[in-house]
Amino acid sequence: MKVLIIGGGQVGSYVANILAKHECEIRVIEYREEILKKLRQEFTSDIIIEGDGSDPLVLEQAGIATADVVVAVTGADEVNLVTSTIAKYEYGIDRVIARVNHPKNEWLFTLEMGVDVKVNQAELLARLVVDEIDLKNILTLMKLNRGEYSIIQMNVAGGAKADGAMIKDLDIPEKFTFIAITRNKQVLIPKGDIQLLAGDHILALSDDDSQKVIQKLLG
User: What's the mean pLDDT in 3-23?
Assistant: First the structure.
């Protein structure tokens, strides 16, 4: 997979290192000399593209025409937004991910502007504080459908409402679907007459709102 990263600061370089370890083909665009010096210590010269990530000529030089994913993570929202729009509508990039630095600008980062996934760090921190979901018991394995649905893994806790109950007797949200149940190293196909037990490992497809409901049943 070919990934073009706009912004080589702390976030951009961290993302680049992770993707490189997963054998992705990466390019990093950066214009600040002090950041470029650090990048040159971590990556080979063919990975680093010097220039403005919102400049179409620089994007062309970095190979955006053949990129699978564009990740715009500069510290300037306007650059991330312009780059996203160019990537989506000029080059037809399938997946465009953009960083939101200032929460007040989040409303601009939409599908219409070319952003498939927006990462708002302030919102993520707030969710950690106010979200009812027990993050220790729900592990998000994969985001689907532009982030609306997730494949999640969770456990049935002892004394939970679902402990000892059959699936058909639980008030399961419409947007939640059991995929598999693992019990004592055996995989069970989730059917209505399957009884859930404490310690069961659940693999499921769910939207964010349904996760809150399910947490109350299983947690």
Answer: 90
